[in-house]
Design goal:
alpha/beta
Length: about 290
């Protein structure tokens, strides 16, 4: 199994990935409203919308809020299925918040990576059908979340891209990211796209199987709702056990190696050269924000 490790000592900046403050989710039976998460239910289909402006970057608090909101919906007997989407225009999620890496505090790093593992496991082990309604670009961790879903529907647009581009940041995607991609596309396509850190257009993603449908923006939620309802017609236990027959090995692999996976992540990001590169990026970002 491949664990995350350094392949270069340089981290290329992502202008859209930086830290922001979020608040705790305020939950009710029918809806959840927060700075970073919004949940609504309509006709038995729940919609979980990421709303952490500007780009739904995955920091520890946001990841934990997403996981909590998702698990709440999993326990809602009135929800037949779940749509995962974003209310931030043109962006599903920019992926992991690189500023979470800018520390040598092993406790903070462990909490961040464990929280990300929790989110991946929650999405993959969901007993209800989950459809990703991808309303814009979804690089890295954004792509990962969509790959955990049972089906992916993406809006068409010349500026939108999706993929796991970790190698362009000088790192390797953890094996559980890779397993999710290999469940969606061919081994050959996965090998090539992962090595190159390739981000592809919606139409290219459709052609290789990275997404299942490409639609106009105004048709996104309607289409996702119809797909959830189609899945929900299948007897739940039969559908879930079939899903686990396909995904179970990768789930078990992570559950058995979680501590080692965290240790490998910490070993990578606490390397002096990696911390120096992150520090340079954060300093440059701070100057651009002034």
């Amino acid at each position: 199994q491949s664990y995350i490790h350094s392949t270069r000592t340089r981290i290329e900046p992502f202008d859209t990935m930086f830290r922001f403050v979020t608040r705790n989710v305020v939950a009710t039976r029918r809806s959840v409203r927060a700075m970073s998460v919004a949940v609504s239910t309509n006709d038995g289909v729940a919609t979980l919308s990421m709303a952490s402006k500007p780009v739904n970057a995955l920091n520890t608090k946001f990841i934990q809020e997403l996981t909590t909101a998702f698990k709440t919906l999993e326990g809602d007997k009135e929800a037949k299925g779940i749509i995962l989407t974003s209310s931030v225009p043109n962006i599903f999620s920019a992926g992991l918040d690189i500023t979470e890496f800018g520390t040598t505090d092993t406790t903070k790093l462990a909490t961040f990576w464990t929280s990300l593992q929790d989110l991946w496991l929650a999405l993959n082990k969901a007993k209800k059908p989950v459809v990703a309604a991808i309303n814009g670009s979804a690089p890295a961790g954004g792509c990962m979340m969509s790959l955990c879903c049972d089906e992916r529907i993406m809006v068409d647009g010349p500026k939108y891209t999706i993929g796991l581009n970790e190698t362009k940041l000088g790192i390797v995607a953890p094996f559980w990211f890779v397993s999710s991609m290999k469940q969606a596309i061919s081994n050959r396509d996965a090998l090539r796209m992962l090595q190159l850190g390739q981000l592809v257009s919606p139409q290219q993603a459709l052609a290789c199987g990275l997404v299942d449908q490409v639609v106009a923006p105004e048709a996104l939620i309607e289409t996702a709702t119809a797909v959830v309802q189609e899945y929900a017609k299948i007897p739940g236990q039969a559908r879930y056990l079939t899903k686990m027959a396909c995904k179970g090995d990768s789930i078990i692999a992570l559950e058995k190696t979680r501590e080692q996976d965290v240790e490998n992540f910490i070993t990578l990001v606490t390397q002096p050269q990696v911390q120096a590169a992150i520090g340079q990026y954060l300093e440059a970002l701070s100057k651009r924000q002034k």
